[in-house]
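step 3/5: co-fold with beta-D-glucopyranose
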Amino acid sequence: MRKILALILVGVMLTATLIMVGCGGAQSTTSSNEKSIKVGVSMPTKSLQRWNQDGSNMEAKLKEKGYQVDLQFAENKVETQVSQIENMITKGAKVIVVGAIDGSALSSVLDEAKSAGCAIIAYDRLIMNTDAVNAYATFDNFSVGKIQGQYIEEKLGLKEGKGPYNFEIATGPLDDNNVVYFFNGAMEVLKPYIDKGQLVVKSGQVTREQCATPNWDEAKAQERMDNIITASYTSNKIDAVLCSNDSTSLGVQSALKSAGYGSADKPMPIVTGQDANIANVKAIVSGQQAMSVFKDTRALADQVVKMVEAMVNKQEPEVNDTTTYNNGKKVIPSFLCKPQFVDKSNYKTLLIDSGYYKESDLK
Ligand code: BGC
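step 4/5: write tokens
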């Protein structure tokens, strides 16, 4: 009897073990299907159109390749971005793509990533003072500034010696490394005309620090331009404003409109921008903003996906610049996509025919 009982017991145990092994097996097959490699995407904010677009482009393209994507937006708060990245590391991300809010505030969290064997791609903005960044994917930021400067140069006929024109500048925050390039690119073209007196900056504000807009905030750009208009332009008119991006541009346009610009006897000055956001393309079509710089975020996302694939396969990512972007610790191998100017003359080809926007988006 005891033998029979023992046999039954062994039988029960064996069956249970088989079931458990079976579950384990089933579990690991399911998880190896579902558990593709994890990639974190940490974007600075949802408050600007471009980052939403960047985030969703990358998410879609990475998912197409079978990656599991953790996409987070940090609402321009550095602590939020740090804790979102920490979370991605804990959850086992193999690669994290980071559009930094403050390029100098991520050294310690990226050290954690490095120790955890997680590769880092700096997205659009360089991350400073850390050797944990493996690659950088961005647009040619110096060219962005140069394109804006050349647009003003051409429209005002500065090469032909025209002027003097009144000119002001609104650039981005001091903690975004891109701003150095945007500003320097534009000033390489425009500074000689300031020096020659063809461009006159009545506010006297010409350095990157003086022309900064914290957080790229539209309202702050507006307030600063309101003050400049009140202080320096009661009896003169402004002919051109270099705005480093579309949010600063909208702020400046609001200040100009409140001061009566945009009418037949006081036309809008030439106002630049960057990103070709929908609100700004509408402003271009209606003649309030002269131009923007189109950075096709689809091209950037494609490049980042290629970088992720290379890193996952322990290969060197494709880059086209190994000299420009020194982050204080090392020169980061970079891929620079090409920016293009967009204005009323070419927006249809560039933005609509290419499928970037639908015609109805611009209504
Ligand atoms: C980006 C611009 C953007 C700005 C504000 C910069 O770092 O390169 O495209 O307009 O941030 O978000």
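step 5/5: annotate
The pocket of beta-D-glucopyranose is lined by residues 48, 50, 124-125, 176, 178, 216, 245, 274-275 (CB under 6 Å).
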